[in-house]
Fold this sequence. Notes:
This protein has helices at residues 2-33, 39-53, 110-155, 206-223, 229-242, 245-249, 334-343, 350-365; strands at 58-61, 66-69, 84-88, 94-101, 167-174, 182-188, 194-201, 252-260, 265-271, 276-279, 286-288, 306-309, 315-319, 327-328, 331-332, 374-381. By secondary structure, it is α+β, with helices and mostly antiparallel strands. It has two domains: 2-147, 2-Layer Sandwich (Beta-Lactamase); 158-387, Phosphatase 2c, domain 1. It has a five-stranded antiparallel beta sheet, with helices on one face. A five-stranded antiparallel beta sheet has the order 6-7-8-9-12, covered by helices on one side. A four-stranded antiparallel beta sheet has the order 2-1-4-3, covered by helices on one side. Strand 6 and strand 7 form a beta hairpin.
Amino acid sequence: MAAGIELTGNGETIDLQQQVARLQALLEASRQVHSTVQEEEVLEQVLRIVVRELEMAGAAFPGTGMAYGDAPVDESGEASELPSYPLEDREGKQMALLVVTPPEGRELTLYETDFIEGLALQAAVALENARNHKRNIEFARVQQDMDAARRIQRSLLPHKRPAIPGYSVAFRSDTCYEVGGDYLDIVEQPDGSLLMAVADVAGKGMASAIMSTSFRSAFRAMAVYGLPLDEMAARMNQYHWAEGEEARRRYVTAIFFRLYPEKGEVEVVNAGHNPGFLIAPGEEPHQFEATGTPLGLFQQMSYTSERRKVPPGTRLLFYTDGLTEVFRGDEEFGPERLLEEFSRCPAQKADVMLDAMWAAINQFSDGGPQGDDMTALVLCRGVALTEIPG
Length: 390
């Protein structure tokens, strides 16, 4: 009787030692699969552990081309009738399937099954971590590229405001994302005039930013020829349309205008863009409405230019729709409110007016998120000292 009790005790001790050894083996296997953040290395570790530690004939992950030892998998990536263990992520979606080939003539033992199931659980965690690590690296690289693209796009804005005796110019461009589709440029002409453009590529983000850069190249190339504005708009339209179907989806609304400082005149062409505003002393505000379709939407379009006097005290505003399509709930800021804010700006300095409009828009939105690229250019002609009431 005593001998029987002693034998039972020895058996329990041996069984406990075996369980500890199995647990240690599984812990070591887990440590190995968690020792890397490379997806392929995780899977390779799992296959190697299964075959070497359990002395299996082979193991494989069907559909990945990864196998170790004798692992019969057909060309479609399906395994034959072999024990298989899914590697699932936290949401229960299968990331990979581990297929094991036992030694010929025998089935897996309960211990081997428990070991592989435990290994599969740890491998699933390691595999998901590896994929998250890869995504994080890719995101960081994309973010670096986007930051570089943002700096490049900012560098394409005019580096400084032109010094025009008797006039002041200010501009501002804030993108909704890292980069955007708004475009603004100022090019001094040989005859002393200044050619300017405010444009908006359809859409937002990287695709629109690329089209904006292409638009800039074409605009700068044509600016050197001193073309009449209506002809320039027609050529820009044809150029953009000829770029192909994808470019036509990213059509461009634009206002081109040329200031003749000495004459006190401005010439404007509106190609499907928001109306520009001109406010002269003692006159009703004037709007430069569109005289043609957006650029690149249809081929062989023609446009009409408009000339207006710019007497002392006149102010002009050209902008993209990001300034007017600002919402507070369901209420839109709108072009009427923008014109009202611009009309009552007290200072005759372009940068002060621009700051005042941005402040009014921010106050209206009540800190809400920016929904579109916002770009504006203000041009003012100062009041001569002899004309100031004394």
